[in-house]
């Protein structure tokens, strides 16, 4: 029987080449062929296509895939519920309200002020909405000063329903093209961000990822129940709080760039657990790598399929189209 | 003898009335104390107070002479191991991983176990007769097997004091005896245990002293023969009880009287 550290090393050693392969596929795929040698020599248009378009997009997919998967692992552990996804605490609803509000007020002074920061107003509004929702769920999901997961889950689910009703109502008064923009945002899209912004996002995502990795041993003990974990010396309320805010921060940053990319955070952790077992010290880093590889590949496929049809690829839909069959195969393959 | 546990005039209420209403108790090294009493007498609450899962409204708990509140959570967990009444049934972790969790209070920041931790976990699994199931997920085990895996977790914690809430409820007779033997073996090495028990016959055999609780208070305390008396038990449980003595050992045996005419 190998130690947890040895098994984690093994899982990571197996996944790093997979991520590298996914990145290579992501960089190589797209409409029209480019020459790597030409791009490295700075020859146009190959250099622009590779460094300004494909590289940022592939890096963004990797970062967001990793962040959503890690957040999914954390929230599933926190709620002791395998159906928890990164948006379960009302974050998707909050982001949707924010985006829809921007669509309603587009062209106003408010929108102009937001665009000053370099992010699109819709992005800022989505993050603001997601974070307000997280704080709301946190505030309402408490009893006797402690975050109660079941309660927070209920508040999150109810809030998400409320939010989608609100968004539907707003869409009724929007123009068709505005509705289209909101829908596209909600279904998750990858864009082309500047590299410095991506580097900033990577740092902003690394912090919660490290916090969660440090909590991995405690997340394991939470599976024993609150009392079981507390009796082993775990500060259960503090562990919950840290995991909740670390996961929310990771999801918030992801939402800012891509809207709501579904499925990754729900299914990557499950797929990883089917292979590695339930130990979070292995599942967390393995999910980060697996999620990165998965979203990069899903995006590459989305670009191939939808660009040839002349449409903007809905990455959030392709993740599920690709991921659902893959997951069923994994599930069936295991007894 | 070192005093592993001392509770002084403990009080705790969830709502009125008090669940524990002024209980004092001690467990010394080498001693097994049994807490008995009817449902809702405050036994489990008392057990939780004794391992720091609940903080008393009044009174104080000392672990090896030090006030519970002054100890860090991890230090508490190194001094007292707790086995709750109910274990999670749907764990994907293997028996071995669960036993290893008992080592958590002894591990560093990243919770990485060393060879000694794995050795102790394995020994604990052997002690509770589940070593053969070590690599099976706990979710696939029977209720009694699962209970023994969690006992192994408590044993692997290597705390001087064990607080076990209803440890025998899902165990068959042979494994009840196995548990009692394991506890007695630990007691001979200076360990102590506090057991919450429903099985009065087993309580008489397994424990050095018994504490009979009723409505949050201590009704009687002492050796088995002093506590397992027909008058006390009939009063505590509110039903007619007879006590006879095992002719071979002199152990008190409790027999409920059922009125078949009703």
SSE arrangement:
The complex is a heterodimer of chains A (335) and B (262).
Chain A: H1 4-28, H2 36-40, H3 46-79, H4 91-104, H5 109-115, H6 121-140, E1 142-143, E2 146-147, H7 149-173, H8 176-186, H9 195-214, H10 216-222, H11 226-231, H12 236-258, H13 264-276, H14 280-307, H15 315-333
Antiparallel strand pairs in A: 1-2
Helix pairs in contact in A: 1-3, 1-14, 3-9, 3-12, 3-13, 3-14, 4-6, 4-7, 4-8, 6-7, 6-12, 9-12, 9-14, 10-14, 13-14, 13-15, 14-15
Chain B: E1 3-12, E2 20-28, E3 32-36, H1 43-50, E4 58-63, E5 66-67, H2 73-79, E6 80-83, H3 95-101, H4 115-127, H5 143-156, E7 161-165, H6 173-188, E8 192-196, H7 200-206, E9 209-214, E10 217-222, H8 224-227, H9 230-237, E11 241-245, E12 252-256
Parallel strand pairs in B: 3-8, 3-9, 6-7, 7-8
Antiparallel strand pairs in B: 1-2, 1-4, 4-5, 9-10, 11-12
CATH superfamily of the largest domain in chain B: P-loop containing nucleotide triphosphate hydrolases
**DSSP strand tally of chain A:** 2
Helix share bin of chain B: 25-40%
Total of helices of chain B: 9
Strand content of chain B: 25-35%
User: In CATH terms, what is the architecture of chain A?
Assistant: Orthogonal Bundle
Number of helices of chain A: 15
Structural class by secondary-structure content of chain B? alpha/beta
CATH top-level class of the largest domain in chain B: Alpha Beta
Question: Could you tell me the radius of gyration of chain B in angstroms?
Answer: 19 Å
> Mean of the pLDDT scores of chain B?
92
Sheet with the most strands: spatial strand order of chain B: 6-7-8-3-9-10
Helix content of chain A: over 70%
Q: Determine the oligomeric state from the structure.
A: heterodimer
The chain-level mean pLDDT of chain A equals 84
The structural domain count of chain B equals 2
Radius of gyration of chain A: 20 Å
